[in-house]
Amino acid sequence: MTTSWIRDAVLIDNEWRRCPTVSDVYNPATEEVVGSAATASIADVDAAVRSARNAGKDWGRTDTGTRADLLDALHAQLVSGRDRLVAATVAEVGAPVTVAEASHVDLAIEIIASFADIARRMPAHDTIGNSTILRRPAGVVGCITPWNYPLYQLAAKVGAALAAGCTTVVKPAELTPLSTYLFCDALLEAGMASGVVNLVPGRGSVVGAAIVEHPGVDVVSFTGSTTVGRQVGRVAGEQLKRACLELGGKSASVVLDDADLSSAVVGSVEAAMLNSGQTCSAWTRLLVPRQRYAEAVEMAAAHSEAMTVGDPLDRNTQLGPVISGQQRAAIADSVERALARGARLAAGGTQTISDRGHYLRPTVLADVDRADPVAREEIFGPVLVVLPHDGDDDAIETANDSEYGLAGAVWSADRDRALAVAGRMDTGQVDVNGADFNPLAPFGGWKNSGLGRELGRVGIDEYTELTAVQL
Ligand code: NAD
């Protein structure tokens, strides 16, 4: 165990204050303890909010150049600490090292750089006729993050909040606090003014709830499950405080009849299985033309079976374990129930592949009714459902037949046709033919996938209040 991963303090007013209780952090691949984190109390939350409010008096009056300077300094610290961030992510999430590098750490670093850049170029105000529209920080942002991409989520929230001139109180998920500690170390090294970011790890139902309920928190930025998101939204609504909610998904990858089937299927399988399927925006429903259904299922099964599941530290590994034994059992249960209702197992299954670690093989299910729970509920594991469609209108109707609307994909040889289909999908993001993720584009959901958007200029606006001054 790396000794520095034993962390027993909360960060308040730029001081590490020891807590009497800590909780262990487990490596999902080995099931061994890899570190520990403080368990904050409600009094700690109160002190953290006071620290953030106090810090906001100065930080909220800084110009955008000063904010960009801090974000640049943070970026430099994260770059120099990249190896430790990767190691912590592999240890606490169980992400394969190549996934931890690209999709967790490097993406988080890129996001911080993007906020520095936007802040530096952001106008202090806009003009509409005789009105000067002042863009002002919304105050203290409570940032509550999940365990699946802890560092990326943190960067999206704290980066935007700092660029907006807000101060924050951060609570990471209980299972993955280690990378958040390293991010806070980087902020201190970067010269952050006292109290601008405060860290209070601990239980969601205690520490998370106390942040949401605290009258000194002006905005809550929550990423997590739809169930908890509703609860957060209810409490925030009672106090008329803004809640940005990034929640679950069951996104559809729509393959049109003119698409290159092989690259569409391979791209969709890889996106569905990324991070062992624990990605909110994963395309977990693959919609293919009915006349090519059997062929597509076979391709998806063959590609899934060929994926390497195993030790996250091995650079050839494509899928590590899922986060916990509880999560593994819930995923396996969803698959078993679907099979009992008549789904066909085209690849994978629920058998263990190792006596240590919460591993699951990438699983492809076919012959599932689109109304079946496995085609509707977020499973949050490496499980792809392949459904047939009867043309563009039917594909769009099936894609939209979901309580969620976070992401999606369209595959077609014709860009205009793909764009037309994307424009009829009720979802926050659509990638055509496997296009790159854009960290400047708004990210967030329709329907039960949440409220508000993160990333880029729109992400900063979530933490901004406007004052219109008529001159
Ligand atoms: P979760 O809802 O259980 O927990 C998320 C965070 O909320 C954790 O920090 C937890 O401690 C805290 N929390 C729990 N109860 C709380 C309460 N009553 N008040 C305040 N905070 C509370 O979610 P999870 O299991 O950690 O994460 C997985 C879920 O997150 C999935 O549903 C996934 O789709 C979703 N997710 C969404 C996005 C997105 O951007 N839309 C991104 C990643 C994950």
Describe this structure in words.
- By secondary structure, the protein is an alpha/beta fold.
- The chain has 2 domains: 3-247 and 449-470, Aldehyde Dehydrogenase, Chain A, domain 1; 251-438, Aldehyde Dehydrogenase, Chain A, domain 2 (3-Layer(aba) Sandwich), CATH 3.40.309.
- It is 41% helix and 22% strand.
- The chain is built from 15 helices and 22 strands.
- The chain has helices spanning 42-59, 64-80, 82-93, 97-121, 150-164, 178-189, 204-213, 226-238, 261-273, 293-305, 325-340, 373-376, 392-400, 415-422, 456-461; strands at 9-12, 15-18, 22-26, 33-38, 125-128, 131-137, 140-144, 167-171, 197-199, 219-223, 242-246, 251-255, 283-289, 344-349, 361-366, 383-389, 404-405, 408-411, 431-432, 446-447, 450-451, 464-470.
- The strands form 6 sheets. A 7-stranded mixed sheet has the order 14-15-16-13-12-18-19, with helices on both faces.
- Helix 2 (64-80) packs antiparallel against helix 4 (97-121), helix 3 (82-93) crosses helix 4 (97-121) and helix 4 packs parallel to helix 5.
- The mean pLDDT is 97.
- It binds nicotinamide-adenine-dinucleotide (NAD).
- Residues 144-149, 171, 173-174, 204-205, 208-209, 212, 223-225, 228, 231-232, 246-249, 280, 378, 380, 406, 445, 449-450 line the site of nicotinamide-adenine-dinucleotide (NAD).
